[in-house]
Model the fold of this input.
Amino acid sequence: MSFIRLRGIGVSPGIGMGEICLSERVVFTARKEVIPRARVPWELKRLKKAAERTKEELLELKKDVSNKMGEEHAFIFDAHLLILEDRSLFSAVEKIIEEEKARAEWALSQVNRKYQSLFDSLDDDYFRQRKFDVSDVLSRIYGNLEVKKPTKGNACDARKMILVAHELLPSEAAMRLSQGNVLAVAMDVGGPTSHTAILARSLNIPAVVGLHNITQQVKNDDYLIVDGTDGEVIINPPLAVKKEFQGKKEKYDRYCRELKKTAKLKSVTLDEVRFCPLANIELPEEVNMAFSFGAEGIGLFRSEFIFLQKETLPSEEDHFSVYSRIAKSAHPFPVYIRTLDIGGEKSLPQLEIEKEPNPALGLRAIRFSLKNRDLFKTQLRAILRASQAKNVRILIPMITEVEEIGEVKLLFEEVKQELEKERIKFDRQIPLGVMIEVPAAAAIADILVKEVDYISIGTNDLIQYYLAVDRSNEFVSYLYKPLHPSVLRLIKFTIEASLREGKDVTVCGEMAADPLSALILFGFGLRKFSMNPIFIPRIKKTLRSVELRTVEKAVEEALGLKTAQDIEEHIIERILLKHPKAFLMGQAI
Ligand code: PEP
Ligand code: MG
Done:
């Protein structure tokens, strides 16, 4: 037995150790078989029957997963039922059968190929990952063209094991991970925003993806260590390595138990100053997980995902079903729904978006929505309809100037009046806020904030636009510094402008999840921190370990320093001097 160490992407932290169960790979056979013209209607009927069997299967799986893991995790099957019912997808398969006189297997594999390359051409990783949903549904229909053999993988179903797969299709991931016996997951492909990654994180199952060819290097019953924190996988480790990781695992498990405890504690500093941790989410399934990490609301729901559930544009009902699910699960806590942030580099498969010479400075987010008013109105109607229980709020991304807010308000009023005419209930007082992520908007925060109910600072975009640095560009990413004195001045100004007007202000970029930056923001007067839920406990731990006065003083002194590094060193030194526990958990994840 050879001992191999592999590097991948750790997408769900923790360590899992045990024997492997290798999951079969879903393959579409690509051999074209031509059929006589007279057989075409029969082939179409065969396809239809397979789709019907797939529907029954999805409904059954939904029930099963819902019983085992709760309704929120069964939502993936609703999304797949929607894809299954999407006429344009189905017609594309029928068309190939009719025009090419091909068997359904071939037609399905061709349509799958077309969609895979369409999604692959998208720049945004999150959107690219949605190709697996389409593939999942098509492969299920494919499998149902023949009357079913017993489901695969049963041999591994009962015992505790490490699941190894080339890729897990979303429904397969929901089914497998719901059984409670998966210790960890290792996959050849995938990224941090894939369904398997999101699900693994929400179920606390360690996972490493992007391992290229692990499925070819292992066989069933090999022993595997999966380190989801460091993105490492070890095949058949010697005893000494096993022991080392056993120790690491125990330490990590202790740390998690402490996190869980922290999640339940009050969000107050040593001197009883309240702060409010909120969650950034992309899927409705993440709501419960967010609350289990200690979130006190959903500070940012990125609505783009709804557009990926179908080949055509989502209907008002598609939007509504997602927003109302989130609003219900989070009630009475608030949910900030951000309207579509698309355009520029983030494209949508349904829309022909014109190539722009400089997409980061182009028709993005609210600029795109105001140019595509029907699409925007559909989204606003659905958000309003989901607002009846009064915990829904709206966030408009990438606002640059006051005029845009005026336009949004006019449109918003138009939609409200339409709903009233139709006697549809909604929250008339639904609060409206904007994201501050364009430097020009931050510089007039004192003016903008008067026009809205609250603001949310998107530091990810704000910093890259302010410093003129694309942080994913390896040549200049060293210049991307959230603690650059100019960035801190701008953020301080924005927070203070909002507080002066008595308006709520949140930071929902990555800075809110970094203990050192969060302390600085806290020193500026910020109390609402919205972040990826897994970081909530560590931010709570940091803020619970300090006193406002110490932080304010350290931050004030730091603002007189020249460089990001000086500022970082100063804050660490000053805070640690008084509050040695402030960064204790900061390094652990
Ligand atoms: C941001 O820009 O900080 C933000 C939260 O928006 P996104 O990361 O979705 O662009
Ligand atoms: Mg942004």
